[in-house]
Amino acid sequence: MVPPAPTSEVTTALHGPVLVVSIHNPPVNALSAAVRRGLADAMAQADATPEVQGVLIVSEGRTFIAGADIREFGKPPVPPALPDVCQRIESCTKPVVACLQGAALGGGLEVALASHHRLAFAAAKLGLPEVELGLMPGAGGTQRAPRLMGAKAAAELMLSGKPISAQAGVQAGLIDRLEEDTRLSPLAAGLAYTQALLAQGAPVRRVRDRAVAEPAAALVALQALADDTAKKSRGLFSPLKIIEAVRAAVELPFDEGMALERRLFLACIDSPQRAGLIHAFFAEREVAKVPEARGAAPRPVASLAVIGGGTMGAGIAAAALDAGLPVVMVERDDEAIARGVANVAKVYDGLVAKGRLTEGQKAATLARFTPTTRYADVVTVDLVIEAVFEDLEVKKAVFRQLDAVCKPGAVLATNTSYLDIDAIAAATRRPQDVIGLHFFSPANIMKLLEIVVPAQVSPDVVATAFELAKRMKKVPVRAGVCDGFIGNRILAVYKQAADYLMEDGASPYEIDAAVRSFGYPMGPFQVTDLAGGDIGWATRKRRAATRDPWARYVEVADRICERGWFGQKTGRGFYRYPPGARSGQPDPEVLAIVDAERARKGVRPRTFTAEEILRRYLAAMVNEGARVLADGIALRPLDIDVTFLHGYGFPRHRGGPMKYADTVGLPQILADIRRFAEDDPLFWQPAPLLEQLVAEGRNFDSLNQPAD
Ligand code: 3H9
User: Fold this and answer.
1) What one GO molecular function would you report for this record (predicted)?
2) Could you tell me which of 204, 205, 221, 225 has the C-alpha nearest to residue 213?
């Protein structure tokens, strides 16, 4: 007689001689405490029940197991620990079979590796993605995977964090058999396999009893990987720990390797990088939950038009084409549309040149692309994205035209990065259909999409925008209407802080180096050179008339642009670029310009340490972030975090600027701002929300409530 199921998340049932252990923990069968307990109890049951000759572990739903329950990390541990559960599975005295479908990730794959035989559906994905969360496999993955697939391949799987196909798993030795029949359920396929194994007298087969193949060569390969990782991982904590643990699999007995894995795993758990990366993981999923779209069904989008064929328009067109949509591109005349066509072709030629696309795939994609100079060609289109010159009057004129020709119910979006979308919407007779879709350049590559919600937009238009983002594989962040929305509004302020630092004594090269040392791929002056100094210059000239004449204004960038030095594309900017080079060298002439500007303004330069530079740069970012929150431009601090992770190169392991502020502590950020204000009280005014949170002893995370 089989005892009742130990937990509702894990049920057991006897099918002939096979004890079927079934996991049911939606949405992804994460290994919560109840699942771990259920699995351990099921193994005890298998051992204690004489009728049981074999065990089958299966899961219900789309995924086998997506790994440990990430929400538990950072909280007090609840036994049994996953490594112990995996040991319990492996030590079962009856053959244990795991049947993998969907995703078998992290602890999910580790459960499978602790089982004695592994069957996987052909569409299954296997991976050890812990590194993406600042972790390493911590339930035997670092010890068992190398014993099955070799140390180098196992370390590479863990360092990349990327999943492999079930077929690749078979080739690597992780999977024993592939199930090709998609009509079968995991239970049916798993039972058939288990029964066949029992019929053949298949033994209990424990990975722990195997040795890693070719140990000497493995150690050499691991050393090479360690050297490479130390160079490339830019201060990340867990990658080198992964290699250390895999080396133990080669050199130490299994139990000693497991003990080392545990120690290293716990060190990763304690690292602030883990906290930052897991914050990023959940924040990226939370951003799509916004009140404006609640309960609304997205409008169907079967076709899309882009107005404007510049770099941005072409990138957006490519993003839509890549999402499988037919795309119409409208330009004002033959010459402009020819340029638009060339811009789109350039995107796909680049992909072909890099071997990411075949000529055939390019042709098939471009067959869905229709260039035109006639607005009449957008009459049947479901969604239009305007990406013309950044000027309110020009954009209003485009929207008036769209209003005249588009079918009722078409969504009319603008890709403006700064302008007042309420004013653009008011140029039409259908403001409820108008929304902002702010893409980042290159639009077919950059993940961030700010979805800007004007006052009158209807909920189903907001829902449509989020749905489109999903189809385009973008990370959507809801933003309110203001100058610069979330990202560019905050950028403007910390860029100003960088300019002040430069004028007050730090060189642009010191500032860039300090910012890189924080984990950014580039500093702000390198970014200016990459984007092209002329772009910001044009904006500054446009705004000159409305600028407060008393506000501090740093002219260094203008002086550089006046010389025609627009950055990488002209070979000079803040840096000098030798022909063909993408990274620049410091330029003494730029330093002379900076000196001259300081002298002209009577500034006596002081020195700044890298730490001081960073404190100012980040405090400016966080302070403006607090204002953006208070104004309702960002719904929650996590929306700001995701914006900066995906659009502005903020180092992911720090979780985003608001998460970083919580890590440092808001009292320290506020104290810094007050100290900086002693020299420049106009710029360094503490945001009232920051002061309020400090007074109440709260952090930004306390504002990250779900948006209902
Ligand atoms: C680990 O295993 C450590 C061990 O080695 C050692 C331990 C000792 N836990 O992504 P989706 C939620 S570390 C908790 O939108 P999809 C997610 O937040 C773990 N929750 O679906 C979302 O919630 P909501 C290693 C999780 O179909 C919902 O599930 N494993 C977990 O696009 C749906 O998720 C990983 O890193 C989790 N593990 O993609 C895998 N996973 O609905 C992480 C998801 O409230 N997961 N949720 O917003 C994934 O990569 C994707 O979720 C997956 C499905 C591919 C599985």
Assistant:
1) (3S)-3-hydroxyacyl-CoA dehydrogenase (NAD+) activity
2) 221
Q: How far is the CA of 162 from the centre of ligand 1 (A)?
A: 14
Q: What range does the domain containing 250 cover?
A: 10-269
Angstrom distance (rounded) from CA 133 to CA 111: 19
Residue 708, in any domain of the structure: no
Give pLDDT tens digits for 644-668: 999 999 999 999 999 999 999 999 9
Answer yes or no: do 363 and 398 share one domain.
yes
Contacts of 456 (CB under 8 A, 6+ apart): 422, 425, 431, 432, 434
Identity of the residue numbered 291: P
- Residue 43 · residue 89 · CB < 8 Å: yes
- Ligand 1 atom index nearest CA of 285: 48
Where residue 667 sits, what CATH number does that domain have?
A: 1.10.1040.50
d(CA 27, CA 29): 6
Taking the model in full, what pTM does it have?
Answer: 0.94
Instruction: Please check whether residues 475 and 495 belong to one and the same domain.
Output: no
* Total domains present in the chain: 3
Which atom number of ligand 1 is nearest to the Cα of residue 110?
5
Distance in angstroms between the alpha carbons of the first and the last residue of the chain:
48
Is the complex ipTM more than 0.95? yes
The catalytic position among 130, 261, 386, 450 is 130
Cis peptide before 442 (omega within 30 of 0): yes
Q: What does the pLDDT look like over 570-601, one tens digit per residue?
A: 999 999 999 888 789 999 999 999 999 999 99
Distance between CA 78 and CA 86 in Å, rounded? 15
Active site residue 72: no
Question: Beta-carbon neighbour count of residue 429 at 10 Å?
Answer: 9
- Indicate if 420 and 450 belong to the same structural domain: yes
Residue 312 CB-half CA count within 13 A? 18
User: Among residues 110, 179, 261, 624, which one is catalytic?
Assistant: 110
